[in-house]
């Protein structure tokens, strides 16, 4: 059973440093866990961790870009993006492992995005006739987005552990006990 994102819990640092996915992670744990585990090449991450960390990075990048939009402090949003790039990539690798895919597939959207940014930069520096590279950049961006759909949307393919199965059975039994009525020789469940 998932716990709400904003629930107050005791600190679970040892659990956050583990290899298993944390579908019951709070918002703070979703933000911190990629920084704890960015140097490991193994482990799993659930969809919630990837979405929450992505939203955190996007909001912080936008906020810092608007706050420091000119002068020498313009380097701060760039540094934040560079610092968050490696944990985000490691999180995508762990999410690939949760889908029972190779972690190398997480390199595909990163490479396509880099290719598109190089094409756009070269296109901006090019003066004169129009070229076909603008369309190639759009194709690269679309492919990068489409290659992230399995990471962002597909449920875990990792088999459930014995603990998860026992916890599910206990929850179902408690639900049936609360919502059943004994009438004569029969039990009705609502």
UniProtKB/TrEMBL annotation:
InterPro entries: DUF805. The chain crosses the membrane at residues 50-68, 74-92, 99-120, 132-154. The keyword Chloroplast does not apply. Keywords: Membrane, Transmembrane, Transmembrane helix. This is DUF805 domain-containing protein. One of its GO terms (cellular component) is membrane. The keyword Repressor does not apply. Pfam families: DUF805. It comes from the Bacteria.
């Amino acid at each position: 059973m998932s716990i709400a994102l904003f629930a107050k819990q005791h600190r679970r640092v040892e659990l956050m440093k583990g290899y298993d996915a944390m579908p019951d992670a709070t918002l703070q744990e979703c933000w911190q866990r990629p920084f704890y585990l960015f140097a490991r090449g193994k482990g799993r991450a659930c969809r919630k961790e990837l979405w929450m960390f992505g939203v955190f990075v996007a909001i912080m990048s936008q906020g810092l870009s608007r706050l420091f939009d000119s002068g020498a402090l313009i380097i701060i949003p760039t540094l934040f993006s560079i610092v968050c790039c490696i944990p985000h990539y490691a999180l995508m690798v762990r999410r690939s492992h949760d889908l029972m895919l190779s972690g190398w597939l997480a390199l595909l959207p990163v490479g396509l995005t880099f290719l598109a940014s190089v094409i756009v930069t070269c296109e901006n520096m090019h003066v004169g006739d129009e070229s076909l590279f603008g369309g190639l950049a759009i194709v690269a961006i679309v492919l990068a987005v489409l290659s992230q759909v399995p990471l962002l949307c597909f449920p875990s393919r990792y088999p459930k552990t014995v603990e998860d199965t026992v916890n599910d059975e206990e929850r179902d039994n408690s639900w049936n006990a609360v919502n059943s009525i004994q009438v004569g020789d029969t039990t009705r469940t609502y």
